[in-house]
Design goal:
Number of domains: 5
Strand order of the largest sheet: 14-22-19-16-17
Shape: rod-shaped
Largest sheet: 5 strands, mixed
Structural class: mainly beta
Number of strands: 37
Strand content: 35-45%
Length: 575
């Protein structure tokens, strides 16, 4: 028999294609397609896919002896076109079997990165393609097909390799493979794949669909997700004058609560959303807030070189969400991963303002200290107004006039908050850091009331203890603000006199005094012996001459008359 070498080549190619396709084309692909022109490149990817699919469905895998051995002598190989019988060649005819590495071995590893190899064998062109990287899958969508119970699932697949490739793509529902197809793509080409699915037997939408390549894929649930409530915010930030340490946001509305952050407009415009934050409000509850004061250069997670604005600046107010619901601003410390801004149409909600730095205003004060009378331990300042808060200090006018501002201090009020205060009582001779030998004024004195600042903001009077370095006086035109008063020390009132019975002698003439007492109705009349004694049944008081007491009584001359009521009258006769 005469062997047709072309027939043998075609048969071998078909066998190799089937084996590689069945193996998932993980080590490369050998594709065969009819030659349509003298130029092999005229064969399209669609022809390749068609030929692969035909080979999968119509070509049976030959037995082992057909892939590695010559056909048996009695085996007849027919040519598709003319039913020609091919017999084994005669003994004298030399026919060489294809080398093993040409018919049964997959491409070596170093061949997988090469461009596809094209060879021509009779009426077929053989493409050998490296496996390369798996197709990428993205942008999966689900839509209703013409039939209401059918859905169409579509995705984009991309060949990431530099050469033409054919790879399988699977469609799955609830994890089960529904359909698998082969997709041919030129290097870096992207195309769509679509699948339809009958959902008539599904009772609900709690199902998933997926489109997968060998390594990649996308999965989507058919269940309708609950609509996410869109967060809303707005902010009003007007131009203003500031001392450089704070600004005021006129109004902010936060549907879900959060913060108002102050950004430096120039840095924000350059894209530095995190580094541009120079201030943030405290946590704000959901709703509308007005006149929100924001302290500058005090932001969690941020470091600053200064503590206030040095020049006029454009700033941006931006509402931020409390994304992790911990009421702590972490946008900076988490590098933007938490507490991002409220947005509208994809853009952050903001309002800008020009902030003008005001020149440092001089603190102002006034004091009214009227003449008064005092017991020497305290005085009353009628009225004091302090723009920045502080103290009212009482100085001894004479010493103050001599320039002794520290030593003249003899009294200080408690700390007074900014504003106007009336009838401020100041205790004298009780000043932190001052020693006194007296505790009160001894004479009428001219005193001076002087408002002092709390320069170190500690609500304590440190003017004397710090030798004038802290808490100095309010000034106006370079002079301390003062008011003088004449304080008159009131005289001591005489102490009440209390007479003791043993220190007092009373002499009464019997003819000039008659004593009658109600409790017992007893009247005693004695001889003029300079003693008069009045006795009660339960309480007897006797007034006697301290040095000379003489009592003379005539027992026989005493007459006692007692009436029915029990009243007793005793009369003693004159000796």
């Amino acid at each position: 028999m005469t062997r047709d070498t072309n027939t043998f080549s075609r048969r071998t190619v078909a066998v190799v294609v089937v084996l590689l396709v069945a193996a998932g084309m993980t080590a490369g692909a050998v594709l065969a397609a009819p030659a349509t022109a003298d130029d092999p490149s005229a064969v399209t990817g669609a022809d390749q896919v068609q030929q692969v699919e035909e080979n999968e469905t119509t070509t049976e895998e030959p037995a082992d002896d057909e892939t590695t051995e010559e056909p048996a002598d009695d085996e007849t190989t027919e040519e598709p076109a003319d039913d020609e019988t091919t017999e084994e060649p005669a003994d004298d005819e030399t026919t060489e079997e294809p080398a093993d590495d040409e018919t049964t071995e997959e491409p070596a590893d170093d061949e997988t990165t090469e461009e596809p190899a094209l060879t021509r064998a009779g009426d077929y062109i053989t493409y050998t393609t490296p496996a390369g990287e798996a197709y990428g899958v993205e942008n999966l969508t689900i839509s209703e097909a013409e039939d209401d119970e059918m859905i169409e699932v579509t995705a984009e697949v991309t060949n990431p390799n530099d050469w033409l490739a054919v790879q399988s793509v699977e469609f799955r529902a609830d994890g089960d493979v529904v359909e698998r197809t082969h997709v041919a793509l030129e290097g870096h080409e992207t195309d769509h794949v679509s699948f339809t699915l009958d959902t008539s037997e599904w009772e609900d939408d709690d199902h998933t669909v997926a489109i997968l390549s060998h390594d990649y894929g996308e999965v989507m649930s058919l269940a309708e997700e609950e609509p996410v409530e869109e967060l809303e915010a707005n902010v009003t930030f007007e131009d203003q004058t500031s001392n450089g340490t704070t600004v005021v946001v006129d109004e902010v509305h936060l549907s879900d609560g959060g913060f108002v952050a102050i950004h430096e407009s120039a840095s924000l415009a350059e894209g530095d959303a995190v580094g541009s934050v120079i201030g943030v409000s405290e946590y704000l509850t959901p709703g509308t807030h007005e006149n929100v004061t924001v302290t500058l250069f005090d932001v969690p997670g941020a470091d600053f070189d200064g503590t206030s604005l040095d020049a006029d600046t454009d700033l941006t107010a931006m509402p931020h969400v409390d994304s992790n619901d911990n009421m702590a601003f972490e946008f900076v410390s988490e590098e933007g991963a938490e507490d991002g801004p409220y947005t509208e149409d994809g853009e952050a909600v903001v309002d800008d303002a020009s902030v003008t730095i005001e020149e440092d205003a001089e603190p102002t004060a006034s004091v009214t200290f009227d003449d008064q009378t005092s017991n020497g331990t305290a005085v009353v300042v009628d009225e004091a107004n302090l723009s920045d808060g502080g103290f009212v200090v009482i100085h001894e006018s004479a010493s103050l006039a001599e320039g002794d501002a520290l030593g003249s201090t003899i009294g200080v009020s408690e700390y007074l908050s900014p504003g106007t205060h009336e009838n401020v009582t100041v205790t004298l001779f009780d000043v932190p850091g001052q020693d006194f030998t007296e505790t009160e004024l001894e004479d009428d004195t001219n005193l001076t009331a002087m408002p002092h600042l709390d320069t170190n903001d500690n609500s304590e009077f440190d003017f004397v203890s710090e030798e004038g370095a802290e808490d100095g006086p309010y000034t106006e035109d370079g002079e301390a603000v003062v008011d003088d008063a004449m304080v008159t020390v009131e005289a001591d009132e005489p102490a009440p006199t209390t007479e003791e019975p043993t220190n007092e002698t009373t002499t009464e003439e019997p003819t000039n005094e008659t004593t009658t007492e109600e409790p017992t109705n007893e009247t005693t009349t004695e001889e003029p012996t300079n003693e008069t004694t009045t006795e009660e049944p339960t309480n007897e008081t006797t007034t006697e001459e301290p040095t000379d007491e003489t009592t003379t009584e005539e027992a026989t001359d005493e007459t006692t008359t007692e009436d029915d009521a029990g009243a007793e009258t005793t009369t003693e006769a004159e000796a």
